[in-house]
Amino acid sequence: MATPAPTSAPLIEKHTIGYVPPEDRHGKVRDLFTLWFGGNIAPLPIVTGALGVQLFHLNLVWGIVAILVGHLVGGVLMALHSAQGPQMGIPQMIQSRAQFGSLGALLVVLIAGVMYIGFFASNIVLAGKSLHGVVDSVPVPVGIVIGALGSGIIGIIGYRFIHVLNRIGTWVLGIGIVVGFGYILTHIQTDDFLTRGSFNLSGWLATVSLAALWQIAFAPYVSDYSRYLPADVKVSSTFWTTYLGSALGSSLSFVFGAVAVLATPVGMDTMDAVKLATGAIGPLMLVLFLLSVISHNALNLYGAVLSLITLVQTFAYRWIPTAKSRAVISIIVLLACCFAAVGASADFIGHFVDMVLVLLVVLVPWTAINLIDFYAIHKGKYDIQSIFQVDGGIYGRYNPQALLAYAIGIAVQIPFMNTPLYVGPVSAHINGADLSWLVGLLVTSPLYFWPGNRDSAYRRRMTGGKLAGSI
C-alpha cells in the first residue's frame, strides 16, 4: 500500500542522520535528474575534463570518447547507490554500519567526510576565482568567503532547498552551456583545434578512469538526496533519473572544458580559457558558473556534516542530532575551510585532485561491498533499529568478513595505482594509467559475496527471518 506524501514539507530540514518516517517523505523522482544534471554543470568538472587534453594529450575525438565511457560506466555504480535511498530512508554513510558494524564503519565514514570537506574547500576557491573574474575589484579571498557563505546558507536550510535550486539550475545552466558550446565552436581561435594531441592508450585509460572516479566520488552521499522520496518509488525509476542526470550533466561539463582549452592557445588556465573562448558571453558564463558552484557546493557541505554527525553519534549514541546541531557543525566546517582556502597555495585545485585520487583507492572497495550487500545479499531488507544501536544490534560492532574483503580490496589496487604518493609497477608499465579502481571492484565484489551471504543467512535464522526495511 502506497504511503501518502505530506501536503507540504518544511523549508528548513529537521532530520539529520535519523530514519525519515513515511509521513515526512516527499518529492518526485524526477527531482533526482535535475539535482545531478544541474549540480554537475560547474567549474570543477570543467577543469577536470580539460585534463584529458591538457595533461594526457588526447585529441578532441578520443578525449570525448574517453569522457563518455568513464561517465557511463562510473554512473552505473553511483546510480545504484542512489536507488537505496527511498528503501532505507537513512543517509548512505550510517547505512554502512550494516556492512561493517557500528565501529567497523568509522574509517569509511571518516574518509568520506574528509573527501567532501576537500571538495567544499576546492569549490570555494573556484567560487572566489570566478567572482574575481566577474568583478576585478573583488579580491579572490573575499570571493572565497562570499562563496562559502552562500553554500553554507543553502546547506543549513537543507534537502528541500537544494532540490529547488537545482530544478532552476538545470534549465538555466543547461541552456547556458549549450549556448557556450555554440559560441566556442563558431569562434575557434586556434589552427590545431582538431589535431592537437593524439590517441595514446595510457592517456585514454587515464581519462576514462578520471571520469569514472568522478561518478564514484558521489557514491558515499548520493542516496542522502533520495532518502526522502516515498518508499514505494521504483528502484528502476530512482536509478535511471539519477544515472541520466549525472552522466549527462558531468559529460557536458567535461567535454566543455576540453573544447575550451583546445579552442584557445596552449598553456592557459582552464577557466581563463573558458572566459577567452566564450568571448562576448564570457562574463555571463562566469556568472552562471559562480552561481552553480555555490549551489552545488552546498551538497559537499551537507554530506561532510552528515558524515561528521555519524562519527560523533557512534560514540554519543544517546545524542539525537537536530537541525540546530547540523547548523552548528556546518558553520564550524565552513569557517575551517575558509581559513584553509584563503591561505592555500596557488595550486590548491591540483593538490585537491591528487588527494581525491588517493582517497578513492579506499572508497572503491567500500562501494563494491555496499552494493553487493544491498542488492545481492540483503536485497534491500535491513534492521534499521540495529543500525542505530551502539553495539550494532544484529550487525555487531565489527564485521570481520567485510573488513577482510575491504583490506584485500585496497591491497590489490596498489600495483595499479598512480597517485602523488605512489605509482604502482603495473601503472608505470602502461605509462601511468590508473586502473586501480577497476581492479578493486572486480576483486572485492566476489570476495565479499560468499562469506557475506553465509553470514546474512545465519542472521536471518537467528532473527526468525525478520529483517525489516523500516522501524
TrEMBL record:
UniProt keyword list: Membrane, Transmembrane, Transmembrane helix, Transport
Protein localization: Membrane
A single GO molecular function term of this UniProt record: transmembrane transporter activity
Transmembrane stretches, start-end: 33-53, 60-80, 100-126, 138-162, 168-186, 198-222, 242-264, 327-349, 355-377, 403-423, 435-452
Pfam families, per database record: Transp_cyt_pur
Topology relative to the membrane: Multi-pass membrane protein
GO cellular-component term (any): plasma membrane
PANTHER family membership: PURINE-CYTOSINE PERMEASE FCY2-RELATED
Family named by the database record: Belongs to the purine-cytosine permease (2.A.39) family.
Protein name as catalogued: Cytosine permease
